[in-house]
Amino acid sequence: METLRLTVIAIILSIGYCQSDKECISGASYLYTGKRSLTKLGHTCQRWDTGFPHKVKKIPQDGGDHNYCRNPDRDPRGTWCYTTDPAVRWEYCDLPKCESKVLVVWAGYNAKQNSSIFDHAKADPEYSSQNNVPAGGMHVEVHKNSIFKAVETDEKGEKIFFTDLKDNYFGIMDVKSSAIERHLQGKVGDIHSIAQDYVTKNFYWTDCKTKSVWVADKDFKAQFPIYNTEPYKPQAIAVLQKHRKLVFSTYVRKDSKVFDTQIIMTDLAGKDAKVLFRYPDVIEVTGLAADDERIYWTDYLGYASKILSCRFDGSDKTEHYFQKSSELRDIAVHEDYIYVSDSQKRYNYFDYIRYHVQILRKGTNQIFTFSRPDLPHGIAILADKSSPERTLESNICEKTCGGICLPNQKGFKCVCSPGYKLQPKTGKCVPNIVNDEYLLALDDASGEVYQIPLSSKGEFSVVHFGKTNHISTMTTDVSTGTVYMYDSDTSDFKMGRVRFALLNKDAKPLGSSVTGKVKDIKLDPVTKDIFYVNENNDIAFMNRYGKNKKVIVENKETNSDVKALAVDSKQKMIYWTDTMGEQGSGKVIRCRFDGSGKQVVLDNLNLPYGIDIDYERNKLYVMDSKDGSIYEIPLMKLIAPVPLKKYKRNDLMDYLYSEKYFLTKLKVHRGFAYISDERKLHLLRYKLGATGPKALVNFGPSVFFKASSLSVYSRSFTRKYIKRLPNPCLRKKCKSSCLALSKKKASCI
Predict the structure, then answer these.
(1) In a domain, 267, yes or no
(2) Of 185, 216, 189, whose CA–CA distance to 200 is shortest?
(3) How does pLDDT run across 613-634, given as a tens digit for each residue?
(4) How many domains is the chain partitioned into structurally?
């Protein structure tokens, strides 16, 4: 990704005036208290408290018992005065604004180019107005194939925090070096807004997909949902630095319309919640910000937008600005100004699309507008926002905490990421690994593996296989619990043990790389041979050590799209689903372990994805992702091609019809079908053949962004159904690898 080089160090100069070769005003010009009394053209200023020679309509806030330059009406062009020349009523003074390096920064998204930039402008509109500074004023570079959304900056003006919904990560950009750190890879979901606590350096964000407010430590070693907003979706968020509170907004839609909204305040641990406002006092709160005195927000009404504020207890609700035909979204505040992004599409004289970023001076109706071709996302102030006048409490979280230290009324609380537990003696966060009866689920979006006990009521653990980059697919040896995985970043196969996860042992490379992507991988539990499908939709083989790789079925279909594999170790057959690139043309195909005897088993399926073999019932299960169907086909009676009407069909539509779904992976075990749904954050568990409201239920935690592999480990199941299966390779003495062809026959390769 190309990066933006911001070559500015932002500083805030204190209110007053500075004297160099030429006097200039630092800060808001209406606060100027100097003694300049001459205009730009040399006219002497008239006293403000007299009416001669001109009638005075504006009086400065210091009373005006003098003839010094002032700005009582907050004119963006700066200070002025009435003159003593009867022919010249008033004139601007020769008091320019000192150049400020404070910037307002936002992300601009170009949908046609699918790119984002960090756009910016001088935060002081007076300086821009007086010096004709073009909006921005600095060169920016385009970040291709990215959608930057939430934007925030640190207290010192040295970092820009943002989310990229395209590459799915949380970014931290160093302003000086332009270096970008990536965090939460694959876990961004739909983050709308982010904020940072300047004391602990913890990050807070709202995620509409998980319907939670999250927090992470400054190094992103741990992240934790501190507030669940169900059934509402969280939207805007801000940290009240001085008051050590968190404020965020939530909303819920019905028939595409917002019918309930809240502004909620909690402590920094997400506790002691208090609703400050709710619908209809607020309609849709899209942005939140705060200074040391007030909370500010944007409220979208559907046909217009408002900017409002209140005190920290919710009192003194004040409307600052109302604009029709606008869609004010994000908001920031700094000193005398309020900054908002407007996502309302507009057209100029040349019919080009334009969007606005607006600056409102507090206490006035003065609006300064920057017009841009890119849709603005997020807005923040890049400056040193620390102040000697504002003393924040000391960081009580500097004490040892292996997870995230959350300040609360009692002091602080140490919490771990979901999937970990806190060890009281060491203060470290460790996974709670179990040794038997569990489901392993791989989240392809984040590359993490989750262990879920089959008796789970929501508990789970994160399984780490040491230094792996990004696991995209995996399979489990049901006899030993060994996990075989494919690392898409290094194109390598690796193996690891779940029980070694607590020791953080690295997964062992199999010394075998594959050119291109591996879409699915399955293991024969008897011979330990591994079968996988590559990006060319070929079915390939290798032994458990990653050697003797061989394509056993070369796919010559141009529109082929193989989704999943299943291994029948009893009959020595491989099955796979192929959507053939379109709905209504899907197939299930099978062949022997050596690739011979290829034939179509099922044809003209809608969109087949998941497939599995159940050794307990000796059945083949095929799941159609769009129909919401799971077909049961006895393997002993399977004669290709199979007429679907002849076999049992588990119809999940009665449980899925009211929601959007896209069923992908399937694992059948002990009468239950475990299903991944890419439209949900959790797995599903369906009791095969059952009916009623409890037939299909959520299973495990709500942490999945894209569950791509499911496998089960059960010692009792293995002893009863797997160890009894024949292994013809035991009699075959092969120098390299052995392929089982039937119950009694095998071949060396």
Answers:
(1) no
(2) 216
(3) 999 999 999 999 888 899 999 9
(4) 1
